[in-house]
Design brief:
Elements (H helix, E strand, L loop, with lengths): L1 H4 L6 H26 L2 H8 L3 H20 L3 H21 L13 H16 L6 H6 L2
Length: 137
């Protein structure tokens, strides 16, 4: 069962690729979560969600981002981030945003983070992570 959660921890080019993806997504979501941290009520009002749901999204993004930066519990952190951004993607689609809009808002960015989160959840953190250090084979 543990092997399903934590696949192999490759090093080399593949491991560096996972590190780059993990650091980029992690940093982005620390920033996304921090931005919401300072105005949970405003975030909740903007997206018409209850404050507890907005708080949960903020905590998932902030904590998930930190965990991705560290490479700790990577599959779970990545799934949490993918889940919150999936909701955001559906919200943008429901609002009628296009997939790509060079002159305005679109749902392309949020869909990218869904894909990146799912990729990290499926592939794992790679060899350059705390997961690999503590649970490596």
């Amino acid at each position: 069962m543990f092997e399903l959660l934590m696949p192999d921890f490759p090093a080399g080019r593949f491991g560096i690729g996972l590190l780059v993806l993990r650091l980029f997504v992690g940093f982005a979501f620390v920033r996304h979560g921090t931005g919401k941290l300072h105005d949970i009520a405003g975030f909740a009002a903007e997206y018409h969600v209850p404050k507890p749901m907005a708080l949960a999204a903020m905590l998932t993004q902030l904590c998930g981002g930190i965990l991705l930066l560290l490479g700790l519990l990577t599959p779970l952190a990545a799934l949490g981030i993918a889940a919150t951004v999936t909701v955001a993607t559906f919200f943008l689609i429901k609002e009628g945003q296009p997939f790509i809009n060079p002159k305005g808002h679109s749902w392309e960015n949020s869909a990218f983070y869904v894909a990146a989160g799912l990729a990290l959840a499926l592939l794992g953190p790679g060899g350059y992570s705390l997961d690999a250090y503590w649970w490596g084979h």
